[in-house]
Amino acid sequence: MPDPLAIIVGGGAVPVQVAAAARAMGRPVFALLLDGFANARDWQGTPSLTIRLGAAGQGLDWLKRTGAKDLVLAGDVKRPSLLMLRPDAGGAALIARIGMKAFGGDDSLLSAIRNLLKEEGFNPMGPKRFLSEAQVGPGLYTKAAPDALALSDIARGVEVVRSLGMLDVGQGAVIQQGLVLGVEAIEGTDALLARAGQVRREGPGGVLVKLVKPGQDRELDLPTLGPRTVAGAVAAGLRGIAFEAGGALLVDPHDMVRQADEAGLFLLSIRPEDHIPGRNPGAAA
To answer: Mean pLDDT, the chain, as a whole number?
Structure first.
């Protein structure tokens, strides 16, 4: 019998897609649902346990009882403050093992969590191993294409997001006519798009640029884009979305393209190095 797979489930469609792919391989699936993020209705019929984030000790004990060694971390999770976490005894012990990295940026925290899970006997992995269709190479995926101004905004976005990433702050920025309408921090992409729509300028719309941060864990923490991202970009008055080739997970890419084509929005998968300011931005188009 194929080895079982355990999934630590946050919000969104990605964990459900991972589970479907695993079942298609014949692998039994167990789901540890994070309360407030996972949708329990999606997991009816799947052996599961719902815990709050602070009950990490309880969750780890349950995962061990499933017999699964491969462990996928998938879905959206808003990082709580330690004051709101209210860890159980096991969770407090785990936080102590993570140490000061619990207070650092997302990259250092994920690295510490990965190491801790390995020490507990698990093989932590990201959803990309099960979602090959969700990763695409460089190129234009829509009927609409960026013009010179949009390509210039993409180059500016690459510069801004790379600078943010060096500080382990965020993965995205919205640029319009060279102006930074907003950058992504802890609030996430949806909130960034909503804010950008409120401050957009007259004239040609802006561009959302999403990249992997330097040093980011490409196994556990790739940026995720989906139809909701396209809808948010349209509502914000943007003209397009540029994302890193091989550095993003596309949730339902076919629906993303359909939705973008209907709205006249472009979806461009880029190699960031081809869009460094000062180089020919058309090289990757």
So the answer is: 86
